[in-house]
Design brief:
mainly alpha, MetI-like, disordered C terminus, cell inner membrane, single chain
Length: about 280
């Protein structure tokens, strides 16, 4: 559980930094100080400036905001889509299951990164929300397959059989009885999916297919500062460092939640802890 607490604490601090930190300085991410081009960190520019005089502190925190929002919305959308599709496929079976499984397998075959890179430039005028939709469309299939398998097992349980005999509508059974019993898996999966979505956004933005100027994200800032990482390190390492810290914190939180919500997960740390406590592994 301490891993979950550590990860949650770091994530909370990152969110506070991203959304409260910009109010601590009078610079915005669009302001330009023409007298301080590529200036090292100082009292006026805490994290220095970039090649055109923009404050790196304001830029990085605005980029962190955007990356966090994209990650959260993508993970939420993909988890909702996966839970509904997987539960319906597993519960109804028959042609519903065959069609959904075929569609899921078809999407898994597509090269998601390549398709997103091709489509996103054509939709850049519609803003970053469309980019979230693209990431979510290719991020739900594996979770849906797991939910489908869990649903096929749950629909044979007594409480589901009892609801069926009472004439409860199938969709109500899915929402009231199936999904709550897979919620622990969905919580852990959604937590880890946030980190994956942020990494996908960062990779696509790094190559120019994600967030577009004048807006910024961690990916665009890392791309802009990569060629000056050795000569002007503050232009690169603040954004890259926050990205690494965020991904590690998400993995810690997901790992801790898995151990807490699913004691039978069989994770090595869980087994070692059980052996120390004299419990069966």
């Amino acid at each position: 559980m301490r891993y979950a607490v550590t990860g949650a604490t770091v994530l909370l601090l990152l969110f506070l930094l991203a959304f409260a930190g910009p109010h601590l300085t009078h610079w915005s991410h669009t302001d330009i100080d023409y007298g301080a081009l590529r200036e090292a960190p100082s009292a006026d520019h805490w994290w220095g400036t970039n090649r055109i005089g923009q404050d790196v502190y304001a830029q990085v925190l605005h980029g962190l905001q955007k990356s966090l929002l994209i990650g959260l919305l993508t993970a939420l959308t993909a988890t909702v889509l996966a839970s509904l599709a997987g539960a319906c496929a597993g519960y109804f079976g028959g042609w519903t299951d065959r069609v959904m499984t075929f569609f899921i397998d078809l999407l898994l075959v597509f090269p998601a990164f390549l398709i997103t890179a091709i489509v996103s430039p054509r939709l850049r005028e519609r803003g970053w929300i469309v980019f979230v939709g693209l990431l979510a469309v290719f991020g739900w299939m594996i979770t849906a397959r797991v939910v489908r398998s869990m649903t096929r097992s749950l629909k044979e349980r007594e409480f589901v059989r009892a609801a069926q005999l009472m004439g409860v509508h199938p969709l109500r059974i899915i929402v009231r009885h199936i999904l709550p019993n897979v919620s622990s898996f969905l919580i852990v999966d959604a937590t880890i999916a946030v980190g994956g979505a942020v990494m996908s956004e960062t990779g696509l933005s790094y190559f120019g297919f994600g967030v577009q100027p004048p807006d910024v994200s961690l990916g665009t800032l890392i791309a802009d500062g990569s060629d000056a990482a050795l000569t002007y390190p503050w232009m690169f390492f603040f954004a890259a460092g926050l990205l690494v810290v965020f991904v590690l914190a998400v993995n810690f939180l997901g790992d801790g939640l898995r151990d807490a919500l699913d004691p039978t997960s069989g994770h090595p740390r869980t087994r070692r802890r059980r052996r120390r406590n004299g419990e069966p592994a």
